[in-house]
Write a structure and sequence with these properties.
Endonuclease III, domain 1; alpha+beta; binds iron/sulfur cluster; 2 domains; 7-stranded mixed sheet; 15 helices; 7 strands; Nucleoside Triphosphate Pyrophosphohydrolase
Amino acid sequence: MEHSKLTMENIQARLAEALLPWYRANARTLPWRETEDPYRIWVSEIMLQQTRVAAVLGYYARFLETFPTVEALAEAPEDRLMKLWEGLGYYSRARNLQKAAARVAELGGFPDTYEGLLALPGIGDYTASAIASAAFGRREAAVDGNVLRVVSRLADCHDDISDPRTKKAVRAWVQEAMPYEMADIRVFNQAMMELGATVCVPNGPPRCGACPVRALCRGYDRGTAEALPVKAAKKARRVEEKTVFLLLREGKTALRRRPGTGLLAGLWEFPNVEGALGEAAAPAAVAAWSLEPKNWENKLTAKHVFTHVEWHMTGYTLEVTGTGPANFAWVDAEGLKSHAVPSAFAKYYAEAQRQLKER
Ligand code: SF4
């Protein structure tokens, strides 16, 4: 196409025919692309939220081996589910998966429309569109960060992509660009994401030389692509200081369950208190649990970054005597393995394993 004819309508009309043959010839082979089963597609979409493809692959295989059907997931004990999710992060995703699985089992199957899917727990606009299109061939545009970037560049659009109005406009635009054939609808959203993940990449310059839609790209034509998309600066994360205690007693260490709501809800953690306590102040925190400290050992610091908050942790390892509060579970090395301890505590978990094996 001559560049003078790069109208938005022209780009929309020709996008699918340029994109889909490239996708079919070049797409990465991923297990969730080999199926039209809404359960398998849904599990992959939830796992892929905020998580890289490479990190998801192993979890995805193990998850489906353990819970091969939506009914099996609906009936799974929560601890088993959390253990399987351990390390993947954003644990509310797993809880919502199970809630939605129970609802789907109740309904006797997955809703096959965007609206029906959107009504399930943990399924937002993007996931509902992704499942509706890939599993049921519905013409629903799924817009994630990849698609926002690709469309900003294609359209030479300088609107802030963190503004919900921009996202809405992009969704409407992609909706118009979607093909009509069932087989094409099923892969179009995936193709847009694949283009964003492998060619029109987020970090560093886009690989326009290898791009199947270059002839349709205003950003390429006008030399603006690399500066796009426009995104307003994020607010700085809140920092929370904590002091974590690896309490050791007769070959066991103490864990306690986190509250049922909020960050890392219901998972297990090493007892901890707010604030970075120095060596003079830390013993009083242990005494408050009616435990008597014996030997203080190495001090372990760690940092964990969540989406909106950072934990800066100071840690102490110590032998104690006494029973401690009723909500402490005292576990040996094997017992520790069977509790879902989030990766925020990975450094303390590794140290606890080491200490318990030595004793
Ligand atoms: Fe992205 Fe370049 Fe392709 Fe445009 S030509 S869509 S900027 S990779």
